[in-house]
Amino acid sequence: MPGGPSPQSNAVAPVPTPTPVSASNIASVGADETKPQSLPTVAGYGGTITFPKPSATGSPNPKSTSTPGGPIAVGVTAAIVQPTDAPEFNPVASARKHRLIGSRKDDPTSPKPLLFVTLLATQDITFEEYPRIAIDVPRDVVTKYRDGTFSLALFDPSDKAKRYRLAVAERDLSTPAPGSIATLKPSAAPTSTATPTARPSTSPSPGASGAVTPPPVATPAPTPTLPPERIAFYGTAATLTLKANRPVVFALYAIPQAPTPAPTATPSAGPSTAPHSPVPSLTPSPVPSPTGS
């Protein structure tokens, strides 16, 4: 109606979709399932996980959809937040007295968790070594921490300590993986400098109607983006048992480096007391008179 509210005034503003903090998929474990399988992609993280051949399997779960005698389904969840069915990632805290040992909780050099990989099996499986895990870490995270400070932790619910164990796997540095510094290739144009499409004229030329034609504008090339870097870990030779419906969590973490103290200003030295060589005086030599007197 005339004078009434506009129809657009009752429109509902779009609600932004929250960024997911976790993602899940299903992996297969069995004697013939020893190839790398994809990790869920979340917040720029990705990668692969390779399970070894199981040494023993327990009784199947009645609710499991796995075929008896065939591959066993294992749920794999990647998250940038701590899982609710695992303890807090606080390696410097005592499991018994819940007090700090050797360092403060707000220590800037304490390990920082980056990604949690949770494994949830549908029936009991026993391995003689840990799975090989390769994680694609976003480039901005890699540049924030030094390359040698990334490591892998493990929470095993069968462990009596009920906390994460640090450095449970050794880094795989044998070959440069895709996305590493050795094989780094920008995904956009090879150059980031502006490439003009035409050379602008120094003197504008009037058109047919007398209007001045503006010079062409240079089109800048797109800025190249750096791919994530792959950080891989070997499978440690240690027994790992996945109990049915009991999560086992691997955590990628980094140890921040202590800030380098700023150099103190050194007071400048005073005037030197060493003797100076006298400056010879420049006395002009007498000019002979033109008359010879």
Write the layout of secondary structure elements.
Elements: E1 22-29, E2 37-38, E3 46-50, E4 56-60, E5 72-79, E6 112-121, E7 123-127, E8 132-137, H1 139-144, E9 150-155, E10 229-233, E11 240-242, E12 248-254
Antiparallel strand pairs: 1-5, 2-3, 3-8, 4-7, 5-6, 6-12, 7-11, 8-10, 9-12
Q: Which descriptors apply to this entry?
A:
mainly beta; extended; 24% strand; five-stranded antiparallel sheet; four-stranded antiparallel sheet; 293 residues; 2% helix
Question: Quick recap of the structure?
Answer:
The protein has one helix at 139-144, and strands at 22-29, 37-38, 46-50, 56-60, 72-79, 112-121, 123-127, 132-137, 150-155, 229-233, 240-242, 248-254. It has 293 residues and is mostly beta strands. The chain has a domain at 20-137 and 145-172 and 231-258.
Question: What would your notes on this structure say?
Answer:
This protein is mainly beta and 293 residues long. The chain has a domain at 20-137 and 145-172 and 231-258. It is built from 1 helix and 12 strands; from the N terminus they run ββββββββαββββ. The strands form 3 sheets. Strands 1-5-6-12-9 form a 5-stranded antiparallel beta sheet, with no helix packed on it. It has a 4-stranded antiparallel beta sheet with strand order 2-3-8-10. The protein has a 3-stranded antiparallel beta sheet with strand order 4-7-11, with no helix packed on it.
